[in-house]
């Protein structure tokens, strides 16, 4: 029983410890950012939405977004598209911390 408690305490301490590594990867659309955080034995991925930096959507895309917003109240925030350079950086980050 004591060993189980020690394992639980170590896991809790790990997640409340400031020892982590973060990297950010920009979406090709210019409006999203993928944050990858490594906690020494697990990964956490967060998608951030910031803006579209003047990128103009086609009329078809605008209508699709309008329908999505009217039906759900939110546009899509669950997708990040990486160019080959960003994808390579992400894969290096993930492989670097592989056990």
Task: Characterise this structure.
This protein has 3 helices and 3 strands. The chain is elongated and about 50 Å long. The model has no long low-confidence stretch (mean pLDDT 76). It has one domain (15-96). Helix content is 42%, strand content 20%. The chain has a 3-stranded antiparallel β-sheet, with helices on one face. The chain has helices spanning 2-16, 59-72, 84-96, and strands at residues 21-26, 32-38, 43-49. Strand 2 and strand 3 (43-49) form a beta hairpin. With 99 residues, it is an alpha+beta fold.
The portion of residues forming beta strands comes to 15-25%
Q: Going across the biggest sheet, name each strand in turn.
A: 1-2-3
Number of domains: 1
Biggest β-sheet description: 3 strands, antiparallel
Kindly report the average pLDDT value. Answer: 76
H/E element sequence: HEEEHH
In short:
With 99 residues, the protein is of the alpha+beta class.
Present the secondary structure layout.
Blueprint: H1 2-16, E1 21-26, E2 32-38, E3 43-49, H2 59-72, H3 84-96
Antiparallel strand pairs: 1-2, 2-3
Give a quick set of tags describing it:
99 residues; alpha+beta; 3 helices
